[in-house]
Amino acid sequence: MSRFSTLRSLGIALAAVALPLVAGCGGVSQEETDALEKQRQTTVAAEQKVSELKADKARLERKLAERQATKKALEDKLAATERNLAN
Residues 2-11: pLDDT tens digits? Predict the structure, then answer.
């Protein structure tokens, strides 16, 4: 399970636990509101971090593909040069 899924599940579980407590008490205390807001902010920050990491991964994968293509071209050039020298 990815971190994003784990964090989302944690947030949902926290809300599921807090909802009956809030409904049963007839009101929401400031502490509960603050805890839920803190959890929301943590989830938003984690989702943003996931997005940044995915973008970084995509950038690195593009860079790797470019370098692999360059390596292949150089290997082909080397092989051609060796063939020409052998003749």
Answer: 666 776 776 7
